[in-house]
Structures are given as structure tokens and as C-alpha cells.
Specification:
Nucleotidyltransferase, domain 5; single chain; alpha/beta; 314 residues; five-stranded mixed sheet
Length: 314
């Protein structure tokens, strides 16, 4: 249940992932055992503000040298100096995600690709010829068919790939942060049933997603410059869930990415929804061996672990 903004055929699923966010870079390695995934190595390096400015437009990586050096340090501290290939997680703000519903879609891959590009062209704020496009079904086999379309500028994705390459890493898979937090929750969070809400916070934006069991039903991304409060965004999302999706409340509400503001954000969301809000503890769920480094391991590890779990299951 994730989109790839870029992908290449690989001989085996990756065991290393890196995340480049606006305020940090993270390197993670995962081993798989009969008991489930185990985080064997992990490290995070903080980036100076303004080093990475996630956006649809180009110019995201403002100080490439700082990102490259931080990534090298993170790989070294995580024991991954010899890694040459990794999955790469990038900020949600790099892409535009749309959920589109159709009575039918073309069955042939080439026809489906042309069809989806034509549909996504209508809402893409740049030429579709300049876009990296991916899509995947989110409603199972039910009719009508709902597809998630993900569009980003090819040159923007290339910025993130370039700094990874300069640090010695080929980014064979590139994906969005919020999708892989969902993958982590579904993959190692135990049985996930009913309608649940993910509130994924970043310094520059907020993403809200509603899932029904494992199926994505709603996705909304708002940048900080939109100046909508978290409480307002959550309230609007809950009303949509009730009015348009026939929801009667959320079975679970997960918060991720809050960092030092997690407690305040959890209280605000809980007050709006009148439900308990959890922070997904990926550190415990994935058996982190080394808990050194940042105190907010739940935030720093969820997305990179999620992309590795997804690739293992694919």
C-alpha cells in the first residue's frame, strides 16, 4: 500500500533505508527473522534549518554539501559505511497525491499508464511530461475502482537521488514518508482493523490519511504556509469521514512526526476527536537493538522501517 515516485528492478529487497527530511537525515538497516523485522542499525543526523526545503518546485536541496556530509555520518554511525544501495524516503511535500474513482480502468499496462497520466494532468501544476508518475489501487477489488495517483517533478526527485549518490548510495526505490509510516503500522503494529486515522507531522506540512483496514480512503496534505491549525484540519477530516465515508468514529488514531511538539499535538487532536491518540512505537515493534541517538525514535524510524517492510512483502 504505497506509491513509488521512482523505482528500478532490484535483485532482492533492500535491507537499508535512508530518509531525507527537512530537519534531519536518518539511516536504518533491518534484518528479518522468524519473529519479524529487527532494526539492526540506525542513526540520525540533524540538519540546519533551511538546508532542505521540501516543495513541489525545484530547489529543495538548498545546501547539498551539508546533506551529503550528514548522510555520510549517519551511515557511518549506523554501521552502514559499506552500503551501496538503499530505499530512499522523501518528504510528502515533494509530491501531490490524488484519489481518483472510476467505473473501469484499462487492463493493459501501457493503456493504464496513458489513462492515469491524462487524468492526473488535470490537477498537476506543471507539465505532466516533466513529472514522475506512479499509481496504485486502494479500494481492493470493489467497484467502483479507486486509484491513488502520485505526481512529482522529475528534477525534484533527482535532487534527493543526487545527494544520496554523492554519499555513495544508489536509491533504487524512492517513496513518500507518510505512505511508509502507514506501512510500518500495518506491517508491525499488530492487527489493524476498522477505520483509522494517521496524522503525520513535518516541520513544513501536515498529512492526514484515513484507512479502512489496510485500504487508503482519504489523503490530505497541507503545508504550513496554508496557516490552518492542526485542530481545524483534524475536525474537517473527521467531518469528511462521517459525511462522505459513512464513518462513525475512528477505531484508532495514530500521530507521527511530531518530535518535540508530539505531546501538544496529541492533546490537540485528542480534544478535537474526543479519543485517545497513540504514537506508534516502531522502536519496540521492530525490536531496535541500539536505542542510542534521538529520543524520538518513533518519529525517526517509522518511515524508513516502513519502506523496508513493504519491499519485503512485495
Amino acid at each position: 500500500m504505497a506509491a513509488r515516485t521512482s523505482s528500478w528492478l532490484a535483485p532482492a529487497p533492500p535491507t537499508v533505508a535512508i530518509e531525507i527530511a527537512s530537519r534531519r537525515v536518518t539511516a536504518v538497516s533491518v534484518e528479518h527473522s522468524a519473529a519479524g523485522p529487527v532494526v539492526a542499525g540506525q542513526a540520525t543526523e540533524i540538519l540546519p534549518e533551511g538546508t532542505v526545503v521540501p516543495a513541489l518546485a525545484n530547489g529543495n536541496i538548498r545546501v547539498p554539501e551539508a546533506v551529503i556530509e550528514a548522510l555520510r555520518r549517519a551511515l557511518d554511525r549506523a554501521g552502514l559505511r559499506s552500503a551501496r544501495r538503499a530505499a530512499l524516503v522523501i518528504p510528502d511535500s515533494v509530491a501531490r497525491v490524488s484519489l481518483l474513482t472510476f467505473d473501469e480502468v484499462p487492463q493493459r499496462p501501457d493503456d493504464l499508464d496513458r489513462f492515469m497520466r491524462w487524468q492526473l494532468k488535470k490537477s498537476t501544476p506543471f507539465a505532466i511530461e516533466e513529472a514522475q508518475v506512479s499509481y496504485f489501487p486502494v479500494g481492493g477489488s470493489a467497484r467502483p475502482i479507486t486509484m491513488a495517483g502520485v505526481v512529482s517533478r522529475r528534477d525534484v526527485v533527482a535532487e534527493y537521488e543526487a545527494v544520496a549518490a554523492a554519499a555513495g548510495i544508489h536509491a533504487g526505490i524512492v517513496d513518500l514518508a507518510s505512505f511508509n509510516v502507514m506501512n510500518a503500522i500495518v506491517g508491525v503494529g499488530g492487527e489493524v482493523t476498522g477505520d483509522w486515522l494517521l496524522v503525520h507531522l513535518a516541520a513544513e506540512a501536515t498529512t492526514l490519511a484515513i484507512l479502512r483496514d489496510h485500504q487508503l480512503m482519504f489523503y490530505r496534505h497541507r503545508t504550513a504556509v496554508d496557516e490552518e491549525s492542526l485542530g481545524s484540519l483534524v475536525h474537517q477530516t473527521a467531518m469528511y469521514h462521517e459525511d462522505r465515508l459513512g464513518g462513525g468514529g475512528f477505531a484508532r488514531v495514530w500521530l507521527s512526526g511530531g518530535g518535540p511538539t508530539t505531546d501538544a499535538a496529541r492533546a490537540e487532536v485528542s480534544a478535537r476527536l474526543n479519543v485517545s491518540v497513540g504514537t506508534f512505537d516502531i522502536a519496540s515493534a521492530a525490536g531496535v537493538r541500539d536505542r542510542g541517538g534521538p529520543t524520538d525514535l518513533a518519529d525517526t524510524l517509522a518511515a524508513p522501517v516502513g519502506i523496508l517492510i513493504r519491499e519485503r512483502a512485495a
